[in-house]
Each structure stands twice: as structure tokens, then as C-alpha cells.
Design goal:
This protein is mostly helical. The protein has four helices and no strands. The chain is 65% helix and 0% strand.
Amino acid sequence: MAQGEPLPKYVDRLCGDDFMSFPPFHANGAEKDKLMELYHVMAYFYLFLDDVMKCQKTLNPNDQKLHSKLDSTVDTVRGLLSNVLCRLCDNYNVRLTDVINGLNTSEEDVFQKKRLGCQLLFKYKQVIAELAQAF
């Protein structure tokens, strides 16, 4: 469902960085540290993407194309999580057991949920570019 004007004019302001609990990533660290931080970043994205997917199925129940893209993205992030964890286990004997918390959007109104989804996409774009250069 398109928002129309004035949203397109203010996308940067509405969707810019506002993640207070987003996990850090330091591209210049040791490989083990980068992999551990990558795991936390991907786990955060996975949890929040799952929440976005549930919201979109309620907000846009007939948009199968969107649901398919979100399902595919969640599957990709789940695969990345698995690969990073395997690398940590095999190369560094690291077993991650700490809990990763995403954002709880269950109490948010529809606009705020859309804004948080937009913020996630902006952050995803930034982080993926940084991760690609780091590895």
C-alpha cells in the first residue's frame, strides 16, 4: 500500500538511523571478532525481518509478491546465520548461546511499524555494504 505524498519527500528523515539497540560491527577487527559481530547483526535482522513479515501479512494480506520477497530474504539471512555459526564453530570452537533481542513491535501502531520497517531497510543497506567490504 503506497503512502503517497508527503512521505516520499521525507523518507530520509523518517527512515534514517534510529536503531538504539542495533548490534555494532567493526570492520577492522580480527576475523573471529568480525564473525561474532556479523552473527549478532544477522540474528538481529533475522528476528526483525520475521516481525516485518508477520506485520506485512496482516497489513497487506493479498500482496503475495511482497510476502515471497520477504520469505526469501528471511531464508537468506537464516542461511547466513547458519554459515557464520558453522565457521565460528569449526575455526574458533565458538558456540554462541546468548540471546539476541530484536525490536518488539507488537504494541506499535501501523505507522510506527511501517517506519520501523523502513528504518530496518535503510540499516540493512548500510550494513550489507560495510560487511561486503570487511570480508
